[in-house]
Inverse folding.
């Protein structure tokens, strides 16, 4: 009987641990405009947003509240599973604490931004990089149409393909779709689109993104009481928090409209990539990926490209302990068959000009964003082709912005000449090339959007 009692006690203890609510810190410090939904009506009373978050998450989250960011320490931040920001202005989070936040997130944390989180830290470029953009005004405060770009996303599965909402709609600068999984966007037919400032007319309203091994979810919704009293918004926010806390891999779940799929889950659709001699791929399908068969040759896309956005998922094989330098899982992504973004095992190493994520031989990445071998990783690339005049003379060089696992490692870098093993630059562009460099690197999902 005593053994049974001990077993039951242990089992109950295990269940208690398994059901322990995850800890979330909600920071609503307003160093700029104070939104009424985060303003406490009286001492000891909670703001509407605080009340709703407490109600929303009572059964599965332990939500702690902070309206004075100066009280937060690096140690206390590390005690949370997720941090939610609904803040404005240059909030007084000490720089060491802010740096520890970015490190914690990169190592697998979860961060959620609500509405004015993009109206925060204008002087901290890394914040804008992480949250996804910078507030650039709210041209529309009215009932708007909202498109659901990912109806299966946990934050949107209840919203159908579109819905309408009374909201203050943000627009953003320093915002790029390439590294983001856009969930909601503005239906510009529902507003006077001439009030917007984006030349591309792309007004995203909610997205998820990787930041190293961590996850970020941002929603521009949540301005006023009407949102915080709307069950659709509350469920949207809850789903975004759930997604950010998920331990699934950090790869983008959706291919952008208008993109061309070159590899899908290890399969090449419609022969869109072949060996340079025109023969079908001899690379091998392995566990959802397409593995380089060393010695068979690189793969090139079936058409040249000029200005384009690209997404490449890759996995570096397990590395023998005595392998050194360029022997550690070598491959590369050649833009326009000219300029290589290096693939290599770079986990834990300093950024170098021939390391993972480098513009090979020309520029080291701004920081090391590499994961360990046997982990799926991503490059998201915004490429601008060189320009030639009517005589064939080059008048401007190629340029590239690169995100590695969601982290920007090159910002609009000028590439003056082809990298080693690149072909000659051409006014008509060149094909995307995935390199066979003798290592069994795998590629899973690869797509391109021409601009």
């Amino acid at each position: 009987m005593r053994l049974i009692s001990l077993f039951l006690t242990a089992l109950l203890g295990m269940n208690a641990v398994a059901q322990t609510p995850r800890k979330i810190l909600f920071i609503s410090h307003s160093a700029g405009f104070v939104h009424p939904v985060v303003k406490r009506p009286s001492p000891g009373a909670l703001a509407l947003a605080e009340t709703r978050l407490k109600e929303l998450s009572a059964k599965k989250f332990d939500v702690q509240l902070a309206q004075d960011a100066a009280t937060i320490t690096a140690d206390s931040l590390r005690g949370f599973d997720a941090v939610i920001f609904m803040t404005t202005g240059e909030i007084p989070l000490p720089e060491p604490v802010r740096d520890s936040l970015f490190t914690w997130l990169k190592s697998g944390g979860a961060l959620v931004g609500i509405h004015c989180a993009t109206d925060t830290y204008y002087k901290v470029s890394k914040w804008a990089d992480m949250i996804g953009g910078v507030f650039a005004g709210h041209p529309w405060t009215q009932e708007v149409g909202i498109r659901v770009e990912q109806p299966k996303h946990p934050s949107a599965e209840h919203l159908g393909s579109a819905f309408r909402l009374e909201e203050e709609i943000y627009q953003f600068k320093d915002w790029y779709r390439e590294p983001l999984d856009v969930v909601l966007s503005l239906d510009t037919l529902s507003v006077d689109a001439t009030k917007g400032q984006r030349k591309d007319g792309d007004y995203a309203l909610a997205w998820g993104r990787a930041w190293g091994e961590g996850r970020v979810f941002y929603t521009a919704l949540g301005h006023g009481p009407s949102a915080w009293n709307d069950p659709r918004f509350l469920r949207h926010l809850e789903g975004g928090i759930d997604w950010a806390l998920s331990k699934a891999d950090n790869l983008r779940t959706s291919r952008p409209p208008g993109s061309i799929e070159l590899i899908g889950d290890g399969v090449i659709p419609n022969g869109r990539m072949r060996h340079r001699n025109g023969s079908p791929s001899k690379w091998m399908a392995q566990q959802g990926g397409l593995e380089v068969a060393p010695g068979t040759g690189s793969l090139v896309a079936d058409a040249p490209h000029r200005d384009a956005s690209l997404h490449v998922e890759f996995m570096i094989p397990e590395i023998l302990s005595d392998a050194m330098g360029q022997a550690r899982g070598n491959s590369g992504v050649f833009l326009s068959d000219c300029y290589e973004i290096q693939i290599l095992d770079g986990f834990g190493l300093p950024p170098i000009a021939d390391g993972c994520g480098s513009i090979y031989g020309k520029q080291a990445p701004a920081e090391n964003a590499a994961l360990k071998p046997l982990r799926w990783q991503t490059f998201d690339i915004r490429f601008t082709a060189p320009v030639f005049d009517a005589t064939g003379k080059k008048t401007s060089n190629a340029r590239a912005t690169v995100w590695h696992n969601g982290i920007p490692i090159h910002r609009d870098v000028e590439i003056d000449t082809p990298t080693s093993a690149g072909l000659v630059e051409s006014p008509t562009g060149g094909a995307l090339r995935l390199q066979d460099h003798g290592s069994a690197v795998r590629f899973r999902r690869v797509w391109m959007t021409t601009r």
